[in-house]
Structure formats: C-alpha cells, structure tokens
Write the structure tokens for this entry.
Amino acid sequence: MIEFQQVSFAYEKDRPVLRNLSFRIEKGEAVGLIGANGVGKSTVMKLLLGLAEGEGRILVDGTEVRRDILPVIRRKLGFVLQNSDNQMFMPTVYEDMMFAPLNYKLSREEADARVDTVLEKLHLEDLKHRYNHKISGGEKRMAAIATVLAMEPEAILMDEPTSALDPYNRRIVINTIRELEQTKLITSHDLDMILDTCDRVILLSEGCIAADGPVREILYDRTLLERHRMELPLSLMGRS
C-alpha cells in the first residue's frame, strides 16, 4: 500500500532529516512510526502527502507520489492532524464531513448517506449537527476521524492521535483506531497507544530505520528504546 525506496530529505543543505529510508507497508497493516523528537516522523507524513519533496521514490498503492498527480494520491490517503482545530474548519461536524464527498462529485444524497454510515459506525450520531466550537477536545478528535472516514480513504495517516486527551477520551480513540479496517500509519510518543493499536513498529533514529518489526518485539526491548532516547511504554515500566 505504501512504499519508500531510498528516500532522503533535508530542510537545510548538508543537514539531512531522512537518509535513504526504505520500507514497505502492506494493505491492511497497522504500523506505528516512533522515535525521539526530530528524527523525521512528521517529515515522512509530509512526503507521503506531497507537502514536501525529497530524493528517492514513494509509492502509494503502486502509484508514485508526484506533484502532477497529487489529487489522485490524496484521495487514497486520509490524514488526521494532531491538532483537530486545524482540520475542522466548517461550522458544524456535518458540514465538515460533507465537504470532501461533495468535492468528490457525489450527490448530496450520496454524501449524506455516507456521513450517516460513518457516524453510525463510530457511534457518533449525536455529534452530527453539533457546532465544532462547542464540542470537547475528545469529541473533536473523534469528529476529525469521522471526517477522514467520510472520504473513504484506502489508508489513514495519524499524527499523535491521542495527544492532549483525558484518559476516557483517549480510550475511546484507541478503541476506534483498532476497529478501522484501512491501512494505518500512526506517529506517536504514546507508546502504550501504539502497543494497543499497531501490529508492527518502525523505529526512526537520526533519519534512518533503527528497528522494524512486530510491535511487542520492539516495544518490550528496553535496551533498544533507551539507546534511541525512548522509554518503555508506561504499562511495561514495572517489568524487569
């Protein structure tokens, strides 16, 4: 579904953020992209969405990410931003969810049916006509996920989806992510959330892949994590 082939990127000359990055994410996989601050996690997302250009090749569902076909690429990818306020720009949840389907040339009836289907699946029917500025942070994060699902993307990218949430809303978001059928690429410092939602982890360090494997193999490895300026998930802290 997603493939990086020898991808390098630098915001400043001679200061590379990513160095010859290569990995492949199969359709239906849930992959956590982790690493300390500044290792290039957000840059990977930007490159996938065509918000930045580097060296090497990036493929989405077999199609190379290029400036001239970005609309095609972006229809395959749904992006849930870390700050939902930057994503929800219409007055109500309903209007936000309708925006992309209508721009994809669906009829209003088709778009409305899609919105209802997504809201029902996420048990968010009560949010449909709520004003975005009057819902809680947790509700807004769920609404942002619903807005992306209304696009019917083949893969979902999430940047710190549980940041700034209280424990109750964090659990709701985690349960929702686990139920999503799409291919998922999630960046987060919340390693307990990664442990709960992902099958596989890619650990970035100094712009390169330091480890890539099953989530429990990597997140249970205290020595590996500490070597790359990270700590065990909180739920594992008491273990030897």
Remarks:
- The chain has a mean pLDDT of 93.
- The two ends are 37 Å apart (CA to CA).
- The beta strands are 2-12, 15-25, 30-34, 55-60, 63-64, 77-80, 155-159, 183-187, 200-205, 208-214.
- The first strand starts at residue 2 and ends at 12.
